[in-house]
């Protein structure tokens, strides 16, 4: 690589005379993660300008073009399936840093889910904490107060043998403990409740864990701040933490494949500081209340470079920035490092000069630093200065608009088959399911997160008698003091189905999201998607991505539920293995009056139990088949019309107050749903499966067919319930055991205490 | 320039749940024969003061913030660099 | 007294994070409540003596680095130790610390306060026996009527959310605390009996959940009354009807009794 120092810390890089090999060497040695094609495009561009670029310019472009910033592989597919689902509630969709949806006449809710996979695989504690910090800023910079966090996590099973681990790969137990601690220490410290999430175990995540984090906030409609500026001569002010070398090239890192080298790349993991963030939240919300913020964006992946770029480009202006005005953590940082640094806890505000003193006063009260670092202006070119010298002068469009690919893909054909295993010992297999990693109690994780802070959590993640709670389907937040209206939140993903049939898995994932929200009495309102996939340069992986998006889009479009924000994480690949396709949904529902909310725990002896929905012989991807090692590609089908009808019926019945408890049927099937309802209510039940018709009893118990719920109905209200909801009565709440028969044949009878012991033991020996 | 090093640990007889939990984790990783794990906090403080004055100041810091005498013992060393 | 409006300061520094719920509780009773950042006290813009009640809310003040509450306490001591002492010695004034606020009161030496005020801490709120942060609901039995508890029923449920809540002190001080009847609430089992884990969520000596000083005007409490102010904040409201949340009664006592 040929370079010439222009000024101290700034180099001119000779790419005009570089051969192809030399271009790749430049990409490699500067850590750009650009392909040959992209390097050639870079060279051509500077040839047309008739000059060589500075190192600042090259780094700025590489960042703008990274997968993470530009979505270069996914954009076309997303546009086709995910974007543009019509909704009269959605206010800002897929444009700014988070989606904005109408809550009531005067308020909107703001939310998004995002991945932080690669950094968490290398440094689980810092990576996960930073993921939480980043998503909070996305909500905050729309002017909203963050009021809920969610965290779907994906690991290999905690009993994975040490000796099977690839070099440099950490054991899932270590990763689980680190990630949970990171989320806990960050979320709890900033005072935002973690109300929902999931922890999923599958061998496919051994080399590459997934850590997704979502946040939801509430804002008065007249206080929404856009992530763009459309006026020249506004000051650009940085508020919050200082800029350091941490996180340099985090974005390029997220767009590359993990391998043995990753350990050394730990420096690409940024370190969040919740105690800087907490006052920063106050500063932003107070300044916004005064109405002095004209545009705002948080400095996440891509740092100052991508923030200034996107903020100005989408508003049709450009900017000049004085890099020497950026407050630094350490001396001797080069201008390009300042431009791409991903140090945490920083926000960029656009404001008028006259309001600067008011901001300063707020910052002083909270001991938060601020610095004016540039201003917006008209024109095409972005200009960066370093102690008065111009170090970057490029058309903003070229830096920010990035590239787009239409990647070739191949769709795997699924041959339908299903093995028929011998009938199991029901009691034994039921207890094994109850203590399996994916079904067993997640209490150890959930209780380490403060889900009560702010006092808004009116339906908790754990539901039931105090001290005996079981998993609920969704949590409900009551965002406003003087309104009964609530927001229900849940997260869903089904990698076990995804690896068999990504399209059907996507339909099922939407189905499950709807089920969860309806279970607590909420009407599904909007989605945010976090799409975690392997290497998109492989046609099969790109095929999985396309099929998942097709399913997600189709189902949501049918139901009229828009995707208002989202994130794509590719390159979840290591040692030649890709993760199972994992489309994660953060789903939000609205309940008009939280007093009608329903929880999953059985309430009262003598109440009848109803099954809603059809049970089918679809065992593909089920926990039961995984546990007994039987094969099936017959995954559950989703009938969207049925889903819509049953949901409407249930919501109507809940409004009448006839449903006392409701739980969706998912992993482990009907048997596990019933068990969880018993555990939470600390009361037994008797079930008879005969009304399900002619089918193997193990299929009746453990099938994970879509669009099903169990309901406990208030005794005496059976007629009213049956007149509203299409359902079959299958049992009654009673006693202190769960007793199940299929007509005259008894399948099992297990005491509550035994169920609870097994259910709680699932993760006990692997955590803490 | 002075360098003060301070180690703050639980007094004998005061339960150390962090130590216990780390012991448990180590045993899960197949390390046997561990008698006890105790956790302490270690501080390095650099200050520009003459030695005697610096010592007094570090003691003040310990008293005012770093140690709660009900549960903690500490060791302190101040040296000139 | 009933109907008299009190001036309440909800103290905060960076990392305080339960101030909003606490503020809302006082507002519900139409009290004259405001947020007071320690920096404003330091710069002379606010004075502690102007208030009737100091409320130190929960959170992770200054990150809870060093020890929970110790940095907040050290800063408050440096800024306004004299004023604070005067505040405690005035029987018409009261201080309540919740969770992190309780930790701060202990670090300040205002609690247990067996002889009023101590210059050094006489107790500690240590790391939970489980060695982890836990967010769960617990049952409390009222041990004594004080101006913080007069309106509170005998058995209530409140949420805890902390990693450092195990009350610990010397056996001599513990004895004095019991002798002076300074324990306001103890953790109990759902039926009101002796609490084992998780009913005693942290391993507190003598199941102590809340204490007053010997003057009876400073209380620290680990569970969060401000998060259980309304019935719908209780986790079992779909099972059990209530008019108000159990935490409501603590605020009611505080405002209706001197």
Low-confidence stretches of chain B: none
Which series of helices and strands of chain B comes N to C?
EHEHE
- Rounded to an integer in angstroms, the radius of gyration calculated over CA atoms of chain C is 17 Å
Say which CATH homologous superfamily of chain B is assigned.
Phosphoribosylformylglycinamidine synthase subunit PurS
The helix tally of chain B amounts to: 2
The CATH top-level class label of chain B: Alpha Beta
Q: How many strands in all of chain C?
A: 11
Query: In sequence order, what are the helices and strands of chain C, one letter per element?
Result: EHEHEHEHEEEEHEEEH
* Order of strands in the sheet with most strands of chain B: 2-1-3
Q: Can you list the strand order of the major beta sheet of chain C?
A: 2-1-3-4-11-10-9-6-7
Reported CATH architecture of chain C? 3-Layer(aba) Sandwich
Please, how many domains of chain B? 1
Q: What attributes does this structure have?
A:
heterotrimer; A: 768 residues; Helicase, Ruva Protein, domain 3; 32 strands; B: 81 residues; alpha+beta; Mth169, Chain: A; 2 helices; 32% strand; elongated
Would you kindly provide a written description of the structure presented here, covering whatever features stand out?
The complex is a heterotrimer of chains A (768), B (81) and C (258). With 768 residues, chain A is of the alpha+beta class. Helix content of chain A is 34%, strand content 24%. Chain A has 25 helices and 32 strands. The two termini of chain A are 50 Å apart. Residues 263-267 of chain A have low confidence and may be disordered. By secondary structure, chain B is of the alpha+beta class. Chain B has a single domain (2-80), classed as Mth169, Chain: A (2-Layer Sandwich). Chain B contains 2 helices and 3 strands, in the order βαβαβ. The longest helix of chain B has 16 residues, at 51-66. Chain B is elongated. Chain C has 258 residues and is of the alpha/beta class. Chain C has helices spanning 19-28, 38-42, 70-89, 100-108, 171-179, 248-256; strands at 7-12, 32-37, 53-56, 94-98, 123-127, 134-142, 155-162, 164-169, 183-188, 208-212, 218-221. The radius of gyration of chain C is 17 Å and the shape is globular. The model of chain C has no long low-confidence stretch (mean pLDDT 94). Classes of the chains: A alpha+beta (768), B alpha+beta (81), C alpha/beta (258). Chains in contact: A-B, A-C, B-C. The B-C interface holds B 14-15, 17-18, 20-21, 41, 63-66, 68-71 and C 66-67, 70-71, 74, 77, 107, 120-124, 126-132, 168-170, 203.
């Amino acid at each position: 690589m040929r370079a010439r120092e222009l000024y101290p810390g700034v180099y001119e890089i000779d790419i005009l005379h570089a051969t192809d090999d030399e271009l790749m060497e430049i990409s490699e040695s500067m850590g750009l993660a650009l392909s040959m094609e992209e390097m050639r495009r870079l060279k051509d561009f500077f040839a047309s300008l008739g000059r060589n670029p500075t190192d600042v310019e090259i780094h700025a472009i590489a960042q703008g073009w990274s997968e993470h910033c530009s979505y270069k592989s996914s954009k076309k597919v997303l546009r086709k399936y995910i974007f543009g689902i019509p909704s009269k509630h959605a206010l800002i969709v897929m444009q700014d840093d988070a989606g904005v949806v109408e809550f009531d006449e005067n308020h909107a809710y703001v939310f998004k889910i995002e991945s932080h996979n690669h950094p968490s695989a290398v440094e689980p504690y810092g990576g996960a904490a930073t993921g939480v910090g980043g998503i909070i800023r996305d909500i905050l910079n729309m002017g909203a107060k963050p009021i809920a966090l969610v965290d779907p996590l994906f690991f290999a099973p905690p009993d994975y043998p040490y000796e099977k681990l690839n070099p440099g790969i950490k054991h899932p137990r270590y990763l689980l403990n680190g990630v949970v601690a990171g989320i806990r220490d960050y979320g709890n410290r900033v005072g935002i409740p973690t109300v929902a999430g999931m922890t999923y175990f599958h061998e496919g995540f051994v080399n590459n864990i997934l850590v997704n984090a979502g946040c939801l906030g509430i804002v008065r409609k007249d206080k929404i701040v856009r992530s763009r500026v459309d006026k020249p001569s506004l000051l650009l002010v940085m508020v919050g933490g200082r800029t350091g070398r941490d996180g340099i090239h985090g974005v390029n890192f997220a767009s590359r494949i993990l391998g043995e080298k990753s350990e050394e790349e730990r420096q690409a993991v940024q370190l969040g500081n919740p105690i800087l963030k907490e006052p920063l939240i106050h500063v932003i919300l107070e300044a916004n209340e005064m109405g002095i913020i004209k545009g705002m964006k948080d400095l996440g992946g891509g740092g100052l470079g991508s923030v200034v770029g996107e903020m100005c480009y989408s508003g049709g202006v450009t900017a000049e920035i004085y890099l020497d005005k950026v407050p630094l953590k350490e001396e001797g940082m080069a201008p390009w490092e300042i431009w791409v640094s991903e140090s945490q806890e920083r926000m960029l505000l656009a404001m008028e000069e006259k309001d600067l003193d008011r901001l300063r006063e707020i910052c002083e009260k909270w001991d938060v630093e601020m610095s004016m670092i540039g201003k917006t202006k008209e024109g095409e070119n972005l200009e960066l200065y370093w102690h008065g010298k111009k170090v970057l002068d490029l058309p903003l469009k070229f830096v920010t608009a990035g590239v787009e690919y239409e990647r070739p893909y191949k769709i795997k054909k699924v041959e339908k088959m299903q093995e028929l295993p011998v009938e199991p010992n029901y009691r034994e297999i039921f207890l094994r399911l109850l203590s399996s990693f994916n079904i067993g109690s997640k209490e150890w994780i959930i209780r380490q997160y403060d889900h009560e802070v702010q006092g808004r959590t009116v339906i908790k993640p754990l539901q039931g008698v105090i001290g005996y709670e079981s998993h609920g389907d969704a949590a409900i937040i009551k965002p406003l003091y003087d309104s009964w209206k609530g927001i229900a939140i849940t997260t869903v993903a089904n990698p076990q189905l995804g690896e068999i049939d990504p399209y059907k898995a996507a339909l099922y994932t939407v189905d499950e999201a709807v089920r969860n929200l309806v279970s607590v009495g909420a009407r599904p309102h909007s989605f945010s998607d976090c799409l975690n996939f392997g290497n998109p340069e492989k046609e099969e992986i790109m095929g999985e991505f396309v099929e998942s998006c097709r399913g997600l889009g189709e189902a949501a479009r049918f139901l009229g539920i828009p995707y208002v924000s989202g994130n794509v994480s590719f390159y979840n690949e290591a040692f030649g293995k890709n993760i199972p396709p994992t489309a994660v949904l953060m789903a939000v529902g609205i309940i008009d009056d939280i007093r009608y909310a329903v929880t999953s725990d059985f309430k009262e002896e003598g109440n009848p139990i109803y099954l809603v929905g059809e049970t089918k012989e679809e065992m593909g991807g089920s926990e039961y088949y995984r546990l007994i090692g039987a094969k099936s590609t017959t995954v559950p089908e989703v009938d969207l019309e049925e889903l819509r009808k049953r949901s409407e019926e249930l919501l109507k019945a809940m409004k009448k107050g006839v449903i006392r408890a409701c739980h969706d049927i998912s992993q482990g099937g009907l048997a596990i749903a019933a068990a969880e309802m018993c555990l939470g209510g600390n009361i037994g039940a008797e079930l008879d499966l005969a009304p399900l018709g002619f089918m193997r009893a193990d299929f009746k118990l453990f099938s994970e067919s879509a669009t099903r719920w169990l309901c406990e109905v208030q005794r005496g209200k059976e007629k009213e319930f049956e007149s509203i909801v299409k359902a079959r009565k299958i049992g009654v709440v009673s006693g202190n055991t769960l007793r199940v028969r299929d007509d005259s044949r008894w399948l099992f009878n297990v005491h509550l205490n035994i169920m609870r012991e097994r259910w709680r033991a699932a993760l006990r020996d692997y955590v803490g | 320039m002075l360098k003060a090093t301070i180690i703050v640990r639980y007094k004998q007889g005061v339960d150390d749940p962090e130590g216990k939990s780390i012991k448990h984790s180590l045993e899960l990783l197949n390390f046997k024969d561990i008698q006890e794990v105790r956790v302490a906090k270690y501080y390095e403080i650099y200050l520009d003061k003459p030695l005697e004055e610096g010592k007094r100041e570090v003691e003040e810091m310990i008293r005012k913030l770093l140690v709660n005498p009900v549960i903690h013992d500490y060791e302190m060393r101040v040296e000139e660099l | 007294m009933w109907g008299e409006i009190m001036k309440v300061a909800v103290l905060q520094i960076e990392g305080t994070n339960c101030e909003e719920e606490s503020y809302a509780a006082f507002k519900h009773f139409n009290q004259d409540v405001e947020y007071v950042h320690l920096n404003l006290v330091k710069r002379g813009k606010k004075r502690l003596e102007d208030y009737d009640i100091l409320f130190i809310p929960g959170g992770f003040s200054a990150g809870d680095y060093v020890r929970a509450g110790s940095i907040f306490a050290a800063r408050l001591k440096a800024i306004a130790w004299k004023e604070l002492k005067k505040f405690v010695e005035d029987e018409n004034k009261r201080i309540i610390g919740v969770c992190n606020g309780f930790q701060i009161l202990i670090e300040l030496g205002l609690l247990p306060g067996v002889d009023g005020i101590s210059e050094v801490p006489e107790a500690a709120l240590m790391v939970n026996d489980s060695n982890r942060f836990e967010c769960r609901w617990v049952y409390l039995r009222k041990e004594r009527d004080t101006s913080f508890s007069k309106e509170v029923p005998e058995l209530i449920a409140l949420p805890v959310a902390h990693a450092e809540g195990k009350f610990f002190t010397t056996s001599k001080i513990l004895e004095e605390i019991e002798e002076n009847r300074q324990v306001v609430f103890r953790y109990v089992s759902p039926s009101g009996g002796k609490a084992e884990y998780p009913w005693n969520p942290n391993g507190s000596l003598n199941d102590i959940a809340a204490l007053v000083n010997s003057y009876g005007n400073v209380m620290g409490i680990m569970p969060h009354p401000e998060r259980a102010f309304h019935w719908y904040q209780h986790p079992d409201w779909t099972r059990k009807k209530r008019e108000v949340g159990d935490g409501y009664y603590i605020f009611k006592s505080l405002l209706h009794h001197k």
